[in-house]
């Protein structure tokens, strides 16, 4: 499915819908350029999981873990050196665990993603609206 988001608030709202249909073990790949709205969408997903803690971009930590309806692993792999580092920081166990895993810059570990991965692609249009394409789950 494809939707147009006209504001950060609309993207949060979409994240909430997505988060409410996710099950434990879901892996969501968030793709799109810097500033597209991947972290904004992650905030909406976290709201649906009833996570009260503020979602901060895990740019330097690579992975942030939160407790909610499900455990949430929020990854930003922009600075990841490669799949070796991903294994070293325990990323693979998270992908196959009971929690929900959101991955910004998942391209870095493409070959490690489960077949069941949900793909969300966000692109910025010239008028600044976002085109958001979701594959692998029905909303
Ligand atoms: N429709 C929209 N959806 C999401 N973010 C938007 C939208 N319009 C403007 N923005 C702004 O774009 C920025 C997206 O930032 P962020 O989610 O951190 O990007 P990313 O994680 O993809 O690098 C925020 O400042 C947000 O307010
Ligand atoms: Mg981000």
Automatic annotation (TrEMBL):
It comes from the Bacteria. Keywords: ATP-binding, Cytoplasm, Magnesium, Metal-binding, Nucleotide-binding, tRNA processing. GO terms for molecular function: ATP binding; metal ion binding. Transmembrane segments: none annotated. It is found in: Cytoplasm. GO terms for cellular component: cytoplasm. This is tRNA threonylcarbamoyladenosine biosynthesis protein TsaE. The lineage of its organism: Bacteria, Pseudomonadati, Spirochaetota, Spirochaetia, Spirochaetales.
